[in-house]
């Protein structure tokens, strides 16, 4: 039997990761952090360090930028997992030049089958002006479609604005 | 007597069109689709084809990129109409170099007078960084102001995030 | 004793300033407007004029682009204050090349100590695509972090979309 899936969606620097971390901490279960970020440049390395410092100790960390579903499949039921984040994972897929459709199917199937409690963090990226570059427009479309699929599959969806949660689905949960 | 007006607002690829289509389908009335998009380039042609395939059969389609109010005025009361979308309409107006203020007055008056049930789709475009180009900044201002006027006039306003609805106005409707 | 703090957050041209003005007008208290905008170019001068015309008479205006906290400290309790906006203030700080962290501490302390009723307007800027320029990315991060701190300190937080309010915190207030 699969565990509950929570999707936390928000803009950049909206407090979504901190909110998602609290969900996992408050579960009382042993905590696993699945990181999809790659420390490719200085900005990203700094960001990863900030996130790691805030999480503190007590997390088992697994880094898997392209196939985080493999980590999910290996988890026992009595774990609470933070997957941070779907946006970095999608970025990694698209940087490889692949159509993310098949990888998405596998990712969503792994989430559905995972026996642990899972919290997935993702970005809202579609509420600005149409981007100038075609790649940005494709990414925006792909991220929007992925978010719709994740939200449809999730038991609970929470939007975070300025650090404050707004439940979009599963309010009684 | 005019029919009820619903405004569906969301980011790019947020699932707003699919949600709006369901509202019209669930009305049980004969369905009319007023399209404001112009198939000017490959991207837009592809997008139009995707939307058309999803809607399926059963829709009477009317294309009117600049004066969709004329289509609204011609409709009998026993119709449910999807106007998709106010953002493409505003884009078409601004591409002509016109000040959209007068066209907006006419558009809003046509919505107010329409006897059919109408669902209007529009984009939220103001939640990113200040755009680099002056035209983008002007568009962002114009879209924001239009959305405020549409929302003030609507009986019901629904924001769509990751395919999930959040009622901003007319919750009991 | 400090007065209540309300944070109004929204995108560009979302109707957030008009909503915030109504909050202050409806307080029935003498009204103070603390302006952080600098009329540096034509666009901003026009925007300031539009805001001023809409507010109408009855406001005492104080302009302070960099240290609005000094205005807050000087206010008696029986005032309702509109500070518009935190985004322009942050922009002014960052244009000077300073790390805004210390100025933020002072700003937040002045808000906490202010005896008047205060409404602060701020922008949501993080829900678009990753900005192309490093400065824009830094600003987006700084604005997001500032919004989180403002929201944590506020008694009431309202998001405005298309002119419509959505209470994120302090719903009973």
From TrEMBL, chains A, B, C:
Annotated active site residues, numbered on this chain, are 51 (gmp-histidine intermediate)
Keywords for this entry?
A: ATP-binding, Cobalamin biosynthesis, GTP-binding, Kinase, Nucleotide-binding, Nucleotidyltransferase, Transferase
Enzyme Commission no: 2.7.1.156, 2.7.7.62
DNA damage keyword on record: no
Q: Which reaction does it catalyse?
A: adenosylcob(III)inamide + GTP = adenosylcob(III)inamide phosphate + GDP + H(+); adenosylcob(III)inamide phosphate + GTP + H(+) = adenosylcob(III)inamide-GDP + diphosphate; adenosylcob(III)inamide + ATP = adenosylcob(III)inamide phosphate + ADP + H(+)
Q: Where does GTP bind?
A: 10-17, 35-37, 52-55, 63, 84
Q: Cite the Pfam families for this sequence.
A: CobU
- UniProt record, GO biological process: cobalamin biosynthetic process
Q: What InterPro entries does the record tag this protein with?
A: CobU/CobP, P-loop_NTPase
If you read the UniProt record, what top EC class would you report for this enzyme, in one word? Answer: transferase
* Recorded GO MF terms: adenosylcobinamide kinase activity; ATP binding; cobinamide phosphate guanylyltransferase activity; GTP binding
Q: Report the pathway entry.
A: Cofactor biosynthesis; adenosylcobalamin biosynthesis; adenosylcobalamin from cob(II)yrinate a,c-diamide: step 5/7; Cofactor biosynthesis; adenosylcobalamin biosynthesis; adenosylcobalamin from cob(II)yrinate a,c-diamide: step 6/7
Tell me yes or no: is Amino-acid biosynthesis among this UniProt entry's keywords.
no
Q: Which family does it belong to?
A: Belongs to the CobU/CobP family.
What exactly does this protein do? Answer: Catalyzes ATP-dependent phosphorylation of adenosylcobinamide and addition of GMP to adenosylcobinamide phosphate.
Give the protein's recorded name. Answer: Bifunctional adenosylcobalamin biosynthesis protein
User: What lineage does UniProt assign to this protein's organism?
Assistant: Bacteria, Pseudomonadati, Pseudomonadota, Alphaproteobacteria, Rhodobacterales
């Amino acid at each position: 039997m699969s565990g509950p899936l929570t999707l936390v969606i928000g803009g950049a620097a909206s407090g979504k990761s901190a909110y998602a971390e609290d969900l996992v901490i408050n579960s009382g279960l042993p905590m696993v952090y699945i990181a999809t970020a790659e420390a490719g440049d200085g900005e990203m390395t700094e960001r990863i360090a900030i996130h790691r410092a805030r999480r503190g100790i007590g997390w088992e960390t697994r880094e898997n930028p392209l196939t985080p579903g493999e980590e999910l499949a290996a988890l026992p039921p009595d774990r609470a997992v933070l997957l941070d984040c779907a946006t970095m994972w999608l970025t990694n897929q698209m940087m490889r030049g692949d159509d993310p459709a098949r990888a998405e199917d596998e990712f969503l199937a792994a989430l559905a089958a995972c026996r642990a409690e899972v919290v997935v963090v993702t970005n809202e990226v579609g509420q600005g002006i149409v981007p100038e570059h075609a790649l940005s427009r494709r990414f925006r479309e792909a991220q929007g479609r992925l978010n719709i699929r994740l939200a449809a599959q999730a038991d609970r969806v929470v939007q975070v604005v300025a650090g404050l949660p707004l439940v979009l689905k599963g309010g009684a949960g």
